[in-house]
Design a protein that fits this description.
globular
Length: about 500
């Protein structure tokens, strides 16, 4: 019942958003979208629209049909199939690991060793996750870490909000301040190249680092302040009674039993750690980061690693990761000497725990599918660009930031948003005499902030679902934090926009 309540809340929010967008598209049916905007799109992704404009036609908003609304969920499920399979596979993997008792014993051992230094653990974890976020866009991949970290931090005397914040804000602040993240700054610079707009990689990295550090410091301060309060007084938790019961049932061990940390436990946790290490190694864009985009050099160095999935490290994505974690589940089951029936039942039980998360993600992705079908995403971008023309730098930066908050709410994919928005926004900044490199930082920061809490993000809903925390509780807890990060972002970006012309 607990997971159902979380899913019901998310379902309600997402379907209301979907219905409102469908109604707006009907009201705007036939509204033209700038030909210049469409002509600047990548023809590999938007060939039909670009051809329409090239042939003298005009792209307009298309009013949503009842079928668009009705089919949004299944179409979203299909569109997010690889991510959903990954999440379900992670659930099965965690279920098998938990069944061995290794995770519980390992966390108990870790908490004993870190006694009195639990706050240091929070800071270390947030910094590590943020490094992953800034360098290779660590986001959906964090979902697999929630079970371990939530169990560890609850055992250390904190609550599930602290655990959620440690992972979600850590990685999220890193993505917000992307430096060499191929899915954010990488996709954005590629989009600028497609329209021949000049930029500076050094400027982008420096601004990304400034956004990363300022946002992370604010988040760490906020999380530690709340963590200390909860540890000193359990009654000060912001969790509802239902969420406290969920925490006790899923993440708390309070029977006074001393857990032995055996050699088998250590072996299972080694495989557990290797599984996540391989995941991280498989997602780093070596071709872009290490080999400067040279595919031949990249394949010559890492082509050998394709024997397992058919793709070398650096080209894996959710489908490959789903296969990898399923394979790792089998290895751990063999190590624990589980019977076939025991393994299947345990795996399915673990997958079931995250199934509601997967369904919510499908609904969220359905919104993106409808946005594309109705061209509402391009209409919003067109009107936003028009609004920015002729404004001074100290207004241009915050307005651009706000526009990206709206766009990111509707299109939570950073790479997808970069592909269709940066040619327009970066080109506009350059035409008005501003530095297009700063616009890349504006895009990254706007996406990063909104993706810390938007219900249309699979990362947010997946993390909250895994930790058994409701969205409204998380929003109530983090509202002041999000505002503080937003203000800090605007200050950094406004100064950069005025100084770097």
């Amino acid at each position: 019942m607990k997971a159902k309540k979380q899913s019901l809340t998310a379902f309600s929010i997402l379907f209301i958003i979907l219905a409102v967008l469908c109604i707006i598209s009907v009201l705007l049916n036939g509204q033209p979208i700038s030909n210049d905007l469409i002509a600047g799109l990548n023809p590999d992704k938007y060939g039909d629209l670009v051809k329409t404009v090239a042939d003298g036609g005009t792209v307009t908003v298309v009013g949503a049909k009842l079928s668009n609304f009705f089919m949004a969920y299944p179409n979203g499920f299909v569109d997010a199939a690889d991510l959903i399979v990954f999440i379900v596979s992670i659930g099965g993997f965690i279920g098998v690991v938990m069944k061995t008792g290794a995770l519980e014993a390992g966390v108990y051992h870790l908490v004993k060793k870190m006694h009195g230094k639990e706050e240091v653990l929070i800071v270390i974890l947030m910094v590590l996750f943020s490094i992953g976020g800034s360098t290779y866009g660590m986001a959906e991949e964090t979902i697999g870490f929630y079970a371990l970290i939530t169990t560890a931090l609850v055992a250390a005397g904190f609550d599930t909000i602290v655990a959620v914040a440690t992972v979600l804000l850590g990685a999220g602040c890193g993505v917000l301040g992307s430096t060499i993240n191929p899915f954010a700054t990488g996709a954005a610079t590629s989009a600028l190249q497609s329209v021949n707009v000049p930029y500076s990689s050094t400027t982008i990295m420096v601004l990304g680092f400034a956004l990363w550090v300022t946002s992370l410091l604010i988040a760490i301060f906020f999380v530690l302040k709340y963590a200390r309060k909860v540890k000193a007084d359990k009654g000060s938790t912001i969790l509802s009674l239902q969420e406290q019961q969920d925490m006790k049932e899923h993440f708390t061990k309070d029977d006074g039993q001393v857990l032995e940390f055996t050699g088998k436990h250590k072996a299972v946790l080694i495989v557990f750690a290797i599984s996540f290490a391989i995941m991280i190694a498989s997602l780093i864009s070596y071709q872009d980061i290490t080999f400067g985009g040279n595919e031949k050099a990249y394949l010559a160095a890492l082509g050998w690693s394709d024997f397992l999935t058919g793709l070398p490290l650096g080209q894996w994505y959710f489908a490959e990761l789903a296969a990898w974690f399923t394979f790792a589940s089998v290895i751990i089951a063999v190590m624990a000497r589980m019977s076939e029936n025991e393994f299947i039942n345990t795996y399915l039980d673990g997958a079931k725990d995250l199934l509601s998360v997967a369904i919510v993600i499908a609904v969220a992705r359905g919104i993106t599918v409808v946005m594309k079908a109705t061209h509402m995403d391009f209409w919003i971008l067109d009107k936003s660009a028009s609004m920015l023309r002729g404004v001074p730098g100290f207004i241009f930066a915050p307005l651009s930031y706000i526009i990206y908050l709206v766009l990111s709410f509707l299109v939570p994919s950073t790479s997808g948003l970069a592909g269709f928005s940066i040619p327009v926004m970066g080109g506009l900044a350059n035409a008005l005499g501003f530095n297009a490199s700063v616009m890349v930082a504006v895009f990254s920061a706007g996406c990063g902030l909104i993706n810390l809490f938007t219900p249309t993000s699979g990362v947010v809903m997946g993390g909250l679902g895994a930790a058994k925390v409701e969205l409204k509780t998380y929003m109530k807890w983090g509202l002041k934090l999000f505002i503080a990060i937003g203000i800090a972002n605007i200050v950094v970006l406004s100064l950069a926009m005025m100084m770097m012309k």
